[in-house]
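Re-running the complex after MR caught last week's input typo. The corrected sequence lines follow. Everything else is unchanged.
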Amino acid sequence: MYDIIGDIHGCTYELSLLLEKMGYEWDTFDGTIIYKPPDGRKAVFVGDLVDRGYSSATAYCLVRDMVRAGFALLCRGNHDDKFMRWAKGNNVILNHGLDKTTEDAGRMGLSKEGILDFLKNTPMYLSLDDGKLIVAHAAWRNSLKDKSPFDKKCRTWCLYGPTTGKTLENGLPDRIDWAAERKETEPLIVYGHQPYKEPRYLNGTYAIDTGCVFGGHLTALRYPEMEIVQIKANRTYDNSKPDISDDI
Ligand code: MN
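Corrected-run output:
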């Protein structure tokens, strides 16, 4: 069924190794070379394709082409959303690697119109397997079930997750561990955004961002088998987090 893949952040090399480890093979589609899944499977990306890493624009193109071919699904991450707002012409701050992402996109000849057109059509969550499986970037809650994945009301929870409204000493928002506070155990929610050293299962949620860009692992959760497949980062690409279990 689904191979759900955590935050990539431009780690294209590790993404290739992970897809190959799960049986994906190079193929051509519409004149483009892409990874084709084994029969009956589909890749599902939790978002944050870009920023922080070394080849964000390449990772973006690889996933975009898989989505267009029907080989993958993508829900939008906060970094993808910021990349989209840049493409739209909004005045966004080019930090956390967005400067390199946009430079590379320019060098590769990606048009802002094309980036905007693709990313604006990415949902803020995916409801799969008759609603038994939800994939969202940062968080989800059962009360969002009746909201469209394009409804702006999903935005804060799905892209950023809940915070206390306070700011930590390091200038980052104080996040709430919503999964620990979750009362329901269904549907299963698979998400990224918050890097942990190991994938974390808690109260019907599965956190699969294991901080590849910070020198951790790129993780996939195979559904419904609930098997974890991982690739160790080739190196640390972003040194801003000495401990990948820290909040980002
Ligand atoms: Mn992320």
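None of the earlier attempt is carried over here. The first helix runs from residue 12 to 21. The longest strand covers residues 217-223.
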